[in-house]
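[job 4417] fold queue: 2 targets
>>> target A
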Amino acid sequence: MKRLLPGTVAVWFGVFLLGLSFSVPVYAVKNNEVNDALSANPAPTEKQVLSDSDISRFTNAITQIKEFYVKNIDDKKLLEDAIRGMLTGLDPHSEYLDEDSYKTLLMATNGEFAGVGIEVTGEFGVLKVVSPIDDTPAAKAGVKSGDYIVAIDGKQVSDMTLSEAVDKMRGKKGTPVALTVIRKGEKNPIAFKLTRDTIRMVSVKSNMMDNGFGYVRISQFQEPTTELLITAVENLKKSSGGNVKGLIIDLRNNPGGLLETAVQVADLFLSDKALNRYSKVIVYTEGRQPKSLYKAKGKPTDLIDGAPIVVLMNEGSASASEILAGALQDYHRAVIVGMPSFGKGSVQTVLPLDQTHAIKLTTALYHTPAGRVIQNVGIKPDIIIENLKITDTSKADLSMLAPVKEFQLKGHLPGTKTTSNTDASLDTLAQNQKDSTLAQSDFQLYEALKILKSMAFGKDMLLINSTSVAKNQ
């Protein structure tokens, strides 16, 4: 079975895995970002054949380099650089994987690698940060999605190839690396001094947020992610007494990963009835070659039995993240909130050249079940929520964060007294304080939770009304 990678380029440990999105069987491994070379350059109608003069020009270039270059150049290096140059000229995501890069790519799919923990792609001659990976040196230091890395250890990125820049960020655990970053809204460059570390990614984190409403964070789509997510949801069920009222799936700054894993995750929340809308398709790809055609279909399962879902995403959500969000959006299974996603809709396939070398080649574009192309467009949220920052709520009127209740109104009529007004007021104040803390620490998540609660309330009211109608008939 061939493994497809929806990718961007990423520097997890500092490898060329700058933001990948792919899969790993016989053929491929992974990668994730943006590229429209396939649509911009259709296949020629006639087969193009190299002339003798073309071949002569290539061999003459090698001869001239070997004879006149200021230093002696090894033939093997010239050959590898020639292959690397061919791929670099195609698009930002096609690349040559030498022995170290290939080994690192294979390691990364299992969730462990060494480096600073940044997913990057090439843009404007420098490195654009797709997203910092959770709990890594880069994330802890404050590197943000959208930052541009212009220098590494004082050397200009514009003077390097993408692979050279990525290689320069690699290194042994405990060694330092300095990054110079330009950030929108900042007048001066920002300097980061990072210490490389082993990156062990736990791709799924979860917790019960409030009264039966669960939260899962998927930081990347790796081989263990599906099973980790199933375990997380089962634990949420147990902690809520077997009934999850709603679920937030946080895909912010998730740069992608394994295509097959994204399909499996989408499959966990789609019922048979929902899947019938688009013939059970979760994602499909189209490319120039028949081998590039790929269609993934779901198998009806819904871990939370139709409970409402809110998917939270931002500009750093790419590739496999967009596959998941797009599928749940097309099937009307989730409300997508946050900011428009990255727009990585090209598929990279890793093609081995021998036992230790490979090329990562853009082979197709992927589509959502409804046929939407994500490349250069991204997934547009149903509800836009900007990442606002509430800097000080200590003096704010916390009662504004929750609806006013009857007992809080002046001169309200007493009802059946099961709980004192004072106790109820204290409960409301405590909830407001909790809401205030969440709003201050993560405004997008706070708003997502409000939307999820509204969806659950609407579903409950619909169920009550339908039951009432059935009784009256």
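>>> target B
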Amino acid sequence: MFALLAKTRCSPIAVDIGSQSVKLLQLSADGTSVQEAVRWEIASAESPDSALRDRQVAEAIRAAMAGRRFRGRDAVFCIGPEQLFVQNIRVPVAANADLDRLVRTEAAGRLPFNSEEAEIRFLPAAEVRQGDSLRREVIVLACHRPVLQRMLEVAERANLHPVAIDVEPTALLRCYSRQFRRDEDRQRRLMFVSIGASTTRVVIARGTEVLFTKYVDFGGRQLDEAVAHHLEMPLGEAVALRRHNGDRRADQRDPEVARSIHEACRPALDRLANELALCVRYYSVTFRGQPLAQIVLGGGEAQQSIADWLSSHLALPCELGNPLRCCRQAALPGRVGQWDVAVGLALKELN
């Protein structure tokens, strides 16, 4: 989003800061292999003290890099859902300079912070018909400048040089769009759903063109809480039980445990499916005659069972995404889906 610089023998270090951990990843210069990758827990996840949280994030980054094979100090950071304002708006069809002015004027009245203290960018989606006139649908992305300053200070504490600050929706699309190179693939409308620890990212796109994006308040945390409530156990035990069950092959899971977890999670997954159905409905009404072809499911919570659930509830085929499908080296710590944003960040300065 806010690009600054340079190419080396490897990609910059992607720094994906989540609610519970940081993920660092570096690719080869051609983006076809992994140079290094590590996931590191943040000491106290989601601290209400922003200064303390920033220090803990910087400490986690330094600890994660210690003794690893990362090359250089150039890094791409990412604005998360708590710091990013995202909204689809419509403005009159106009040329570049006028479009920029129209978007900024329209966005100024919607921001939760002073527009004079905001960095505002937008992604033109498409021309859409509204009544008897054509309007331009755009996706506004805005961030309060003090947030950017805090991010630069975190980078400095971690002894990294930020060459760009990106946003999750564009990183997510960059990760997967390079896998769809045929002309027919580029014309398909896909919904990318990335379920993280506390938030789900939704991006609807055609090729590299973003048409819709939204954050949904749903993640692994809600599933853990559902299991803890349903089975009347401490949250920590529910986290371990669900993780252990999910990481085992289907034929090695205890059927009774799997059934109990499924029953516990069903109401939460219903809420997710309902939120995604609203996204599909907005897209369908806005971009008439351009049906969605498929859902690609990623993030740390991506599992075949959830893919099957979404497919049945949304009446769309849903497949598990593989952020490393175009890489020769595919071994990464933990579930591969959790690396989708980090891969997209690493690719930013290589494209």
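[job 4417] complete. Note on B: The first strand starts at residue 2 and ends at 3.
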